[in-house]
Amino acid sequence: MECSKCKKVGFSKPSSRTLFECDQCNAAFCADCTDSSASEVEVLQLQRRKLIFYCPNCVHLVNDVGVLMSQVRELTGINDLLRKEIEDLTNANLDTEKILKRK
After folding, report:
1. What's the chain look like in SS3?
2. What's the sign of the alpha-carbon dihedral 51, 57, 63, 68?
3. How many CB atoms lie within 10 A of CB 29?
4. What is the pLDDT of residue 11?
5. What is the mean pLDDT of residues 22-32?
6. Are 3 and 10 a contacting pair, CB within 8 Å?
7. Is the dihedral of CA 91, 92, 96, 102 positive or negative?
8. Over residues 44-59, mean pLDDT
9. How far apart are CA 75 and CA 72, in angstroms?
10. pTM over 0.85
11. Which residues make Cβ contacts (< 8 Å) with residue 62, sequence separation at least 6?
12. Which among 26, 47, 71, 72 is least buried, having the fewest CB atoms inside 10 angstroms?
């Protein structure tokens, strides 16, 4: 297996593993090509680790999802306001039509 970034070759034996697979896309990266601290590297080398590893590409995607979710919430709020305005205008138009029919 080789690092997806620098193309260094790692070992397949878990005890000497120098490459880490991204938990999202399964691409392999060596410790030198990640922003992982020495203690994070030690945890990533454990057979039963609880630390999730995202490669640099997936980290950007995860961050983008947060931004996109925020934008969706904002647009949903705007959509709700516009629906209310349309409803109010429709009701006002119906009231105007009723008044005009009486005359």
Report:
1. CECCCCCCECCCCHHHCCEEECCCCCCEEEHHHCCCCHHHHHHHCCCCCCCCCCCHHHHHHHHHHHHHHHHHHHHHHHHHHHHHHHHHHHHHHHHHHHHHHHC
2. negative
3. 25
4. 53
5. 85
6. yes
7. positive
8. 78
9. 5
10. no
11. 24, 54
12. 47
pLDDT at 24: 87
Q: 36 and 19 in contact (C-beta within 8 Å)?
A: no
Q: Mean per-residue pLDDT for 89-98?
A: 85
Structure tokens, 77: 């709020």
Buried b (16+ CB within 10 A) or exposed e, 34-64: bebeeebbeebeeeeeeeebbbeebeeeeee
Indicate the pLDDT class of residue 16, thresholds 50, 70 and 90. Answer: very low
